[in-house]
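step=encode ok
step=design start
structure_in=
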């Protein structure tokens, strides 16, 4: 089934192109229902973080889904206040316990905390060596952060998860990551919903008989960007997965590319306030 389409990462692991993001899912029943629905309609990846306080629900929904654990790709992240070498190892153990799993597929440094992110990544490399994670990665790393890591890493980060959507296309960072064989996952792939009322996107959507969300997700796909849209609504979870049955023309891709305005809905990693 196409829905389970996976991308082969630099270390040979296959990661589903589409996953469910679960940020802001704090209500237990709502979280369980959303993940269950996603798995039912073919999603095979879930993106959580220690920060989201729902790792336990992610684990529970997966265990009760009937889908074998090894078919599902679970991402979690070490939060900023837990960074540094020893703290990261401890934070990972806590996440693993909450997930109630014996390994995590992808473990990420959530943000590049100055003076800590290099040591944080060293701990992630150790977890990879110990086979407790299948893929080592980072999030919110600009090119200069990656260059700093690459200078000392034994294993280059395999994934960088950053904010990407048509208003923030991250072309330069994506090109650098491609050169370094680092896969890019888009967080807020729908711009937190903020790009969906764009007139140009709506016009393209109408032409294909698709929704704005589907067109935006398809734009990511055609740029080889992994996606983790979040929704708690069953109908939208399904809608966001129906993106494998049409193709945007080169001209429509160009129109969408031209919407870039370097506009962030989240924070800039260089100005992030690590105060929560
Ligand atoms: N590494 C990092 O620092 C970060 C990682 N992330 C990850 O990325 C995931 C996705 O990003 P997120 O910030 O949640 O934003 P998204 O771009 O995924 O947008 C989510 C918003 O769009 C709405 N939505 C979803 N589908 C549709 C649709 N088909 N039509 C209309 N509205 C829709 C959702 O509402 P509703 O739920 O009501 O449907 C929600 O308000 C997060 O959940 C998290 O896992 C996010 C931020 C930072
Ligand atoms: O993952 C995340 C969810 O969104 C938060 C608010 O923008 C981010 O800070 C965080 O990185």
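sequence_out=
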């Amino acid at each position: 089934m196409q829905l389970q389409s996976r991308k082969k990462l630099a270390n040979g692991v296959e990661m589903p192109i589409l996953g469910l993001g679960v940020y802001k899912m704090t209500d237990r029943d709502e979280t369980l229902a959303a993940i269950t629905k996603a798995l039912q309609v073919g999603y095979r990846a879930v993106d959580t973080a220690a920060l989201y306080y729902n790792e336990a629900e992610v684990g529970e929904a997966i265990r009760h889904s009937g889908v074998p654990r090894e078919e599902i790709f679970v991402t979690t992240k070490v939060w900023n206040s837990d960074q540094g070498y020893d703290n990261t190892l401890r934070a990972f153990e806590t996440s693993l316990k909450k997930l109630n799993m014996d390994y995590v597929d992808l473990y990420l440094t959530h943000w590049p905390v100055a003076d800590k992110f290099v040591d944080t990544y060293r701990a992630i490399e150790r977890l990879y060596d110990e086979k407790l994670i299948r893929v080592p990665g980072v999030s919110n790393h600009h090119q200069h952060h990656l260059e700093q890591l690459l200078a000392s890493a034994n294993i280059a980060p395999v994934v960088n998860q950053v904010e990407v959507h048509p208003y923030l296309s991250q072309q330069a960072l994506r090109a650098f990551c491609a050169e370094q064989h680092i896969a890019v996952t888009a967080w807020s792939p729908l711009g937190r919903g903020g790009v969906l009322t764009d007139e140009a996107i709506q016009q393209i959507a109408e032409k294909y008989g698709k929704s704005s969300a589907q067109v935006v997700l398809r734009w990511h796909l055609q740029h080889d960007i992994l996606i983790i849209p979040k929704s708690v609504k069953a109908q939208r979870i399904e809608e966001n997965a129906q993106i494998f049955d049409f193709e945007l023309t080169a001209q429509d891709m160009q129109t969408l590319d031209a919407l870039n305005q370097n506009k962030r809905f989240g924070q800039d990693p260089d100005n992030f306030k690590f105060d929560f």
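step=design ok
step=annotate ok -> Residues 23, 49, 51, 110, 266 surround 1,5-anhydro-D-fructose (ligand 2) (CB under 6 Å).
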